[in-house]
C-alpha cells in the first residue's frame, strides 16, 4: 500500500521554509543516494517533497536577495555530493526503467489509472537540478561539491544533457512549449501526454545544465585539475557550446508572421526586429562560458587547439556583431581573438604525450549501472507492483500532497514569467482557489473550463 504523509506547514509569509525546517530536512539526508529500485517508494516521495521545498526556498532567497541559508546548510552538512548522485540516479532510472514503462504502455502491458506517480518521479530530476543550479553559483558550494568528489560525474551529466539539447530542433521545442498544450488535450491519451511532459522536463534540465557549466567556468582557478581536464579534453565542452550557438534550439521563426521567436521563461515570445540580437539569459550564459574557456589560464593550459577546433570556433565570428558585443563588452575581446586565430595554423590532432597519463574517472553512474546491470526488468516489475499502481485512495493523497507543494503565495515571486490561461493562452492573473494549479485570465474562461476541470480538481483537493 502506498502511504505518503507529507508535511504541509510552510514558514511565515514570504518564506516557504524557515531555517530550522531546512536544517532538519538537510541533516536527515543520507550520504548515499537512494537505490534505483527504491525510486518512487513512499520514503523517496517524502524525500522528494523536502527537495522541492528546499529548491523553492533557495530560488526565493536568491530572487529576493535574502540570506541564502539553504545553500549554507548544504555546505555546512556536506550534502551537495549526494544531490549530484541523486540527479544521476534519476537520470539512470529515466533511461533504463521509465523507457521500459513507455514500451509496456504502448503495447498495453501496463495501463496505470494515473500517470501522476511516474510524472512526479520524472520531475524530481528537474527539481534537484534546479536546486544545484541555484546553489552552485556560490564558490563555497562549488568548493564543497569538489571536496565531495562528485564534480567529475556532474561534468559528464551536463555533457550528456547538452548533447541532447544540441540535437533538438524546432518541431521538438514547438510541441514542448506550446501554451495551448500545457494541459492534456481531450483527444490525447495518458501515454501521449506523459511522453510530452517527459520531453519538456528533459529539455528544461538541459537548459539548467548550461548555467551549471557556466558556473564551472567561473571557478576554473579553484576546481581540481581532473575536473578542468574532464570538461575540456574528455567532454570537449568548448566545442559543444559552439554547437549550441549554431543550433540555438531556443530560437525559431513563426510560420505565420515570419517573425523571430525566442524561448524566454519557458514560453515562446515574438521578438521585434530591433531586438532580434538582444541576448536572452541562456544565450548570455553560453557566450560567457565560451569566453572563460578560451581566456582562463587554467583552461589554456589544458586545451590543445587543432585545425578541427579552429574551424568550429570560426563559426562564432558571424554571431559576434556589434549589437551582441555591446551587451557583453568582453565579447569584443573574444572576437579579436578569433580573428587572429583565423590567420594561424594548428596541427590536425592534439599531440600525444610521451608520459603515462593517470586520469581520474567519474564513478557514480558507472557503479549504479554495474550494480543493476541484470536487474532492470525486475526493478521495473517491482516498481509497477509496489509504487506505480496506486489505489484510488492512495492516488487522491498523492495528488493532494503534490498540489500542496505549490500552495504558497511566496511562489508567485519565483514563477517563470507571467502564467498563461489554460483556455486562451492570454496572460493569467487568477488561479483555481481549490487546487491552486490551473490559471485563468478571466472568470469567463474559468467557468467554461469547469466541466472538464471539476474531476481533476476534486482529486487534488479532496482527501
Detailed description of the structure:
The protein is mostly helical and 463 residues long. Helices cover 59% and strands 3% of the residues. The protein has 21 helices and five strands. The chain has helices spanning 19-28, 42-63, 69-76, 80-106, 116-135, 139-148, 151-167, 170-177, 190-218, 225-234, 237-247, 281-295, 297-302, 307-314, 322-327, 330-341, 364-371, 376-386, 392-404, 411-414, 443-461, and strands at 251-253, 260-264, 267-270, 430-431, 439-440. The strands form two sheets. A three-stranded antiparallel beta sheet has the order 1-2-3, with no helix packed on it. Strands 4-5 form a two-stranded antiparallel sheet. α7 (151-167) packs across α9 (190-218) and α7 (151-167) runs parallel beside α11. The two termini are 16 Å apart. The relative contact order is 0.11.
User: What order do the strands of the largest sheet run in, or round the barrel if closed?
Assistant: 1-2-3
Tell me the series of helices and strands, N- to C-terminal: HHHHHHHHHHHEEEHHHHHHHHHEEH
Q: pLDDT below 50 for ≥5 consecutive residues: which ranges? A: 1-13
- Structure class: mainly alpha
* Rounded Rg: 23 Å
**Main β sheet profile:** 3 strands, antiparallel
The coarse overall form would be globular
Report the oligomer: single chain
Number of H- or I-type helical stretches: 21
Q: Percentage of helical residues?
A: 55-70%
Amino acid at each position: 500500500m502506498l502511504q505518503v504523509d507529507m508535511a504541509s506547514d510552510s514558514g511565515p509569509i514570504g518564506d516557504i521554509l524557515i531555517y530550522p525546517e531546512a536544517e532538519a530536512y538537510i541533516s536527515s539526508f543520507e550520504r548515499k543516494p537512494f537505490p534505483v529500485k527504491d525510486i518512487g517508494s513512499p520514503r523517496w516521495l517524502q524525500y522528494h517533497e523536502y527537495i522541492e521545498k528546499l529548491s523553492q526556498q533557495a530560488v526565493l532567497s536568491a530572487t529576493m536577495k535574502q540570506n541564502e541559508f539553504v545553500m549554507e546548510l548544504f555546505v555546512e552538512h556536506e550534502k551537495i555530493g549526494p544531490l549530484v548522485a541523486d540527479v544521476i540516479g534519476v537520470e539512470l532510472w529515466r533511461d533504463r526503467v521509465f523507457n521500459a514503462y513507455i514500451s509496456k504502455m504502448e503495447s498495453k502491458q501496463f495501463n496505470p489509472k494515473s500517470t501522476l506517480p511516474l510524472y512526479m518521479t520524472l520531475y524530481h530530476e528537474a527539481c534537484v537540478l534546479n536546486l544545484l543550479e541555484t546553489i552552485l553559483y556560490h564558490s563555497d558550494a562549488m568548493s564543497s561539491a569538489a571536496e565531495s568528489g562528485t564534480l567529475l560525474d556532474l561534468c559528464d551529466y551536463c555533457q550528456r544533457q547538452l548533447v541532447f539539447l544540441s540535437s533538438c530542433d524546432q518541431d521538438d521545442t514547438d510541441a514542448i512549449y506550446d501554451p495551448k498544450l500545457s494541459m492534456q488535450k481531450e483527444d490525447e491519451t495518458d501515454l501521449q501526454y506523459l511522453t510530452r511532459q517527459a520531453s519538456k522536463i528533459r529539455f528544461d534540465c538541459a537548459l539548467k545544465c548550461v548555467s551549471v557549466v557556466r558556473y564551472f567556468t567561473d571557478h576554473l582557478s579553484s576546481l581540481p585539475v581532473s575536473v578542468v581536464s574532464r570538461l575540456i579534453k574528455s567532454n570537449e565542452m568548448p566545442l559543444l557550446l559552439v554547437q549550441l550557438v549554431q543550433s540555438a534550439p531556443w530560437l525559431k521563426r513563426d510560420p505565420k508572421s515570419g517573425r523571430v521567436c525566442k524561448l524566454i521563461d519557458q514560453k515562446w515570445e515574438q521578438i521585434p526586429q530591433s531586438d532580434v540580437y538582444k541576448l536572452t539569459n541562456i544565450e548570455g550564459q553560453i557566450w560567457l562560458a565560451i569566453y572563460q574557456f578560451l581566456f582562463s589560464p587554467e583552461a589554456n593550459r589544458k586545451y590543445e587547439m587543432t585545425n578541427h577546433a579552429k574551424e568550429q570556433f570560426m563559426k562564432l565570428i558571424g554571431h559576434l556583431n556589434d549589437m551582441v558585443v555591446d551587451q557583453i563588452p568582453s565579447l569584443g575581446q573574444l572576437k579579436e581573438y578569433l580573428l587572429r586565430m583565423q590567420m594561424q595554423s594548428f596541427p590536425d590532432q592534439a599531440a600525444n604525450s610521451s608520459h603515462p597519463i593517470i586520469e581520474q574517472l567519474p564513478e557514480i553512474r558507472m557503479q549504479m549501472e554495474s550494480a543493476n546491470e541484470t536487474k532492470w526488468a525486475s526493478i521495473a516489475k517491482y516498481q509497477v507492483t509496489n509504487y506505480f499502481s496506486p489505489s484510488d485512495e492512495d492516488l487522491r493523497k498523492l495528488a493532494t500532497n503534490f498540489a500542496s507543494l505549490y500552495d504558497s503565495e511566496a511562489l508567485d515571486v519565483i514563477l517563470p514569467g507571467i502564467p498563461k490561461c489554460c483556455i486562451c493562452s492570454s496572460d493569467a492573473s487568477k488561479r483555481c482557489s481549490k487546487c491552486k494549479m490551473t490559471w485563468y485570465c478571466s472568470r469567463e474562461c474559468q467557468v467554461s473550463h469547469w466541466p472538464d476541470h471539476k474531476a481533476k480538481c476534486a482529486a487534488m483537493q479532496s482527501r
